[in-house]
Amino acid sequence: MAISTEVPETVQWNGKSVPVYPMETISFERLLSQEPAELEKILSCCNTEGFFYLDLQGIDGRRMLEDQKKTLELMHHFFGSPIEAKNQYGLVTPHLGYEPVGSRTGVFENTKDGYEMIKVSRDEIQRDGPHLPSIIKNSPSIAILENAIADCNIATKTILSALSTALGLTGAARFENSHRNDKPSTTTLSMMHYIPTDPSDKQIGHQKHTDISSLTLLFSEQWGLQIRPPGAREFGFVKPKEGCAIVNVGDSLRFASGHKMQSCIHRVVPFDPTEHRYSIAYFLRAEDETMFTDSEGRYITAGQWHDEKFLAFTYIPELQAQAPPTMLLGGMKEYDGEEEAVAQAPAPSAMKEISIEA
């Protein structure tokens, strides 16, 4: 699909008409069968926009959807607990533990983020007695997390395998061979709760960025994700699609592809400021020792890229400005200034407006 040639739908948000960007839908069933047309389709998505829907409604994907609903119930229990219980261990490592609201920079100038998050790494969940807050460290909860992580691992590895086949990669050059299950990595299941806000709030949303991961598999039934596809002049919403996860290319896969694949810039904003918003994101990351050329032209490990970019996320704006200019956006280019982006967007009369139930 070509975003630039399609007239996008719009929704009213923050006092203006905002695009709702279309995305291709990829069939998980057809990827499992390595159907040539679907392989060509997914490679095109990754090379042009870097985002797509993954349809999980077939027999092989349905259990993933059911497991994510169980994970959502677990999240409601966890995030509804007292702060002392949630923050029992704090942030153990960058990819394990609890982050309270306001740990990172927010969407708008002089704001902090508007979400809290519990992260469970794939390496940690496989240990005897994983390091988790006691309120979710029981047999049913551990089983739910294990299933959710296993599901996401299967889905994202299937995507990597499909991309490798589509590119004609063999042996060690195949993408999945730098994402082996028995090698250390920062692969993580992140469960996020965006708190209700009001117009005066200084803790809002999630700043614009690209993901550190190779692939991100996102589950959310609520509006709030905004993307700025390559060549687009403003952020627009992604419409939640029933029975589908949203997948995006991250920095590591872009680097591994020789910078041919696109890691789309995105952020999260409160579409309905009065609601509690929940999302589940699985960040599949390359083995820590995997080598690639990053956005600065450095030949570094995946582990080093993860640690440097994670720290940049937590910097105050003044320090973020001193970080390499391509760090938070993974080397992806964008238009300068939100005002310019809005000014050059198609006029609302050229768009089809849709209504949604918030």
TrEMBL record:
Q: Which Pfam families match?
A: 2OG-FeII_Oxy, DIOX_N
May I ask which residue range the UniProt record assigns to the signal sequence? none
Q: Which residues form the Fe2OG dioxygenase domain?
A: 184-286
Record GO terms (molecular function): metal ion binding; oxidoreductase activity
Q: Write down the PROSITE patterns for this protein, in alphabetical order.
A: FE2OG_OXY
What are the GO BP annotations of this UniProt entry?
small molecule biosynthetic process
Keywords (alphabetical) are:
Iron, Metal-binding, Oxidoreductase
* Protein's UniProt keywords contain Phosphoprotein: no
Checking PANTHER family in the record gives: FI07970P-RELATED, OXIDOREDUCTASE, 2OG-FE II OXYGENASE FAMILY PROTEIN
Q: Which family does it belong to?
A: Belongs to the iron/ascorbate-dependent oxidoreductase family.
Give the protein name, as stated in the record. Fe2OG dioxygenase domain-containing protein
Source organism per UniProt: Venustampulla echinocandica
Show the taxonomic lineage: Eukaryota, Fungi, Dikarya, Ascomycota, Pezizomycotina
